[in-house]
C-alpha cells in the first residue's frame, strides 16, 4: 500500500481495525497524494462486487490473488451520492467481456489529471488503471489489497496541516468525500522482487518522464510522487549495478531488442539518480518543504558534483532554513561550474544583505543591553 514517499512525505499507515479471519484489512487508513495535496483515506471493505472477464493471452487473475505492479485493473469509482442512481444501469455491463487489446488501448488514452479533482479517474464509469503508474494514488492504494470482484467504501478528507501549492479552493471543495471503489478484474502483474533489472529500469524512466510532464502542468504533488516512485525502484537496482560494474558487464544485453533486458551504464544510472533527487528537491521547494529539499539536493550534488541545478536548489533550501553560510558555499560552487551565473551572483548579494541586516539588528540589541 502506498503510504510514504521517500524524502518528502512521512505519513505511516494507520491501521484502524484488523480482522482476525482470512481478510486482514477490512478497515484501514492512510495518507495519499493528489494534485491538491495530501488527503487522508479511510477504507472499509464491503464484500463482493460484480465480476468481469478479460479474454486473450493474459487471463483474468484468480480471485485469491491481488494485483501487482503493472496489472491492468478494471475499476469503477463512484461518489456515494451517485451510487444509488447507478444501480439501475449496472446490469447493462454486468457481463461485459473485454479483450486484452481493448483494455490496453483504454490505458493508452489515460484520463487527464486535473488540479481541481481529488480522484484522478472518471467517476461512475468502468475504466482501466495500470497499477504502479500513480494515475490516482488513492484508488491504487485501495486496489492493491483487493481481490477480483471486491468492493470497498472510502472516506477522503484533506490533511489540514499540509501545504497547498494549488490555487486556493473554496472551503466547500475541501469537504470530506465518500466514495466506493470496485475491482472487477485485473491482469497479472509482478512484485518488485520478481522483476528483472531491465524491467525496473523501464519503470524508472517512465516515472521520471511522467514527473516532468506533471511538473510542467503545475501538478507539483504529482511530480514529486513520480520522482519518489522512480527513486524507490532505483534503490532496488543499486546492488545489481554494483555487480555489473565490478564484472565489467555494463553493456550486458544492450544488443537485445527487448527493452526490458536493456540496462543503463553505471554513469547513466548515477546521472539519472542525481537528476531525480534534484527534481524532487525542486518540488519540495515549491511545496515549502525546505529541510527535505535540502536533503534531496545534497544527495544530488554528491552523485553529480557538476550538476549546477542541484547546487542552486541546495543554496535556495539553505536560505529558506536560514543556514546562510551553507547557502553561500552552495552558490559559490555554482559559480565554479557556471562563472558569472546571474542567479548565483544575485543569491550571494541577497545573502550579504541579509547578513548585514542581521548584524545591524544584533548590534542594536547589544547596545541597548549595555546602555
UniProtKB/TrEMBL annotation:
Q: Where are the TPR repeats?
A: 308-341
Q: Which UniProt keywords apply?
A: TPR repeat
User: Could you say which residues form the signal peptide?
Assistant: none
What Gene3D superfamilies does the annotation carry? Tetratricopeptide repeat domain (1.25.40.10)
Lineage, top-rank taxon, reads Eukaryota
Which InterPro entries does the protein's record reference? FKBP4/5/8-like (IPR050754), TPR-like_helical_dom_sf (IPR011990), TPR_rpt (IPR019734)
Keyword field contains Oxidoreductase: no
| Xref: SUPFAM superfamilies | TPR-like (SSF48452)
Sorted alphabetically, which Pfam families does this protein's record hold? TPR_16
Q: What is the protein named? A: Uncharacterized protein
Amino acid at each position: 500500500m502506498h503510504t510514504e514517499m521517500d524524502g518528502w512525505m512521512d505519513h505511516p499507515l494507520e491501521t484502524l481495525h484488523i480482522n482476525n479471519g482470512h481478510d486482514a484489512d477490512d478497515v484501514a487508513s492512510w495518507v495519499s497524494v493528489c494534485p491538491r495535496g495530501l488527503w487522508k483515506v479511510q477504507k472499509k471493505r464491503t464484500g463482493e462486487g460484480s465480476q468481469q472477464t478479460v479474454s486473450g493471452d493474459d487471463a483474468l487473475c484468480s480471485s485469491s490473488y491481488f494485483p501487482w505492479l503493472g496489472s491492468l485493473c478494471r475499476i469503477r469509482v463512484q461518489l456515494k451520492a451517485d451510487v444509488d442512481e447507478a444501480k439501475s444501469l449496472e446490469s447493462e455491463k454486468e457481463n461485459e467481456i473485454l479483450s486484452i487489446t481493448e483494455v490496453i488501448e483504454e490505458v493508452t488514452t489515460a484520463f487527464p489529471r486535473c488540479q481541481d479533482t481529488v480522484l484522478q479517474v472518471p467517476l461512475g464509469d468502468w475504466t482501466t488503471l495500470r497499477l504502479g503508474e500513480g494515475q490516482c494514488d488513492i484508488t491504487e492504494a485501495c486496489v492493491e489489497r483487493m481481490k477480483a470482484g471486491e468492493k470497498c467504501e472510502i472516506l477522503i478528507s484533506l490533511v489540514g496541516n499540509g501545504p497547498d501549492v494549488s490555487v486556493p479552493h473554496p472551503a466547500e471543495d475541501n469537504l470530506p468525500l465518500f466514495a466506493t471503489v470496485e475491482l472487477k478484474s485485473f491482469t497479472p502483474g509482478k512484485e518488485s522482487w520478481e522483476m528483472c533489472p531491465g524491467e525496473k529500469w523501464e519503470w524508472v524512466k517512465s516515472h521520471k518522464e511522467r514527473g516532468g510532464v506533471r511538473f510542467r502542468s503545475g501538478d507539483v504533488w504529482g511530480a514529486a510522487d513520480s520522482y519518489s516512485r522512480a527513486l524507490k525502484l532505483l534503490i532496488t537496482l543499486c546492488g545489481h549495478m554494483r555487480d555489473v560494474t565490478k564484472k565489467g558487464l555494463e553493456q550486458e544485453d544492450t544488443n537485445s531488442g527487448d527493452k526490458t533486458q536493456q540496462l543503463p551504464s553505471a554513469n547513466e544510472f548515477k546521472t539519472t539518480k542525481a537528476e531525480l533527487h534534484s527534481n524532487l528537491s525542486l518540488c519540495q521547494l515549491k511545496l515549502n518543504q525546505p529541510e527535505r529539499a535540502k536533503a534531496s539536493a545534497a544527495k544530488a550534488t554528491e552523485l553529480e558534483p557538476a550538476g549546477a541545478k542541484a547546487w542552486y536548489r541546495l543554496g535556495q533550501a539553505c536560505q529558506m532554513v536560514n543556514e546562510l553560510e551553507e547557502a553561500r558555499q552552495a552558490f559559490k560552487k555554482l559559480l565554479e561550474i557556471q562563472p558569472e551565473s546571474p542567479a548565483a551572483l544575485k543569491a550571494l548579494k541577497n545573502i550579504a544583505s541579509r547578513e548585514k541586516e542581521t548584524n545591524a539588528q544584533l548590534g542594536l540589541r547589544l547596545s541597548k543591553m549595555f546602555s
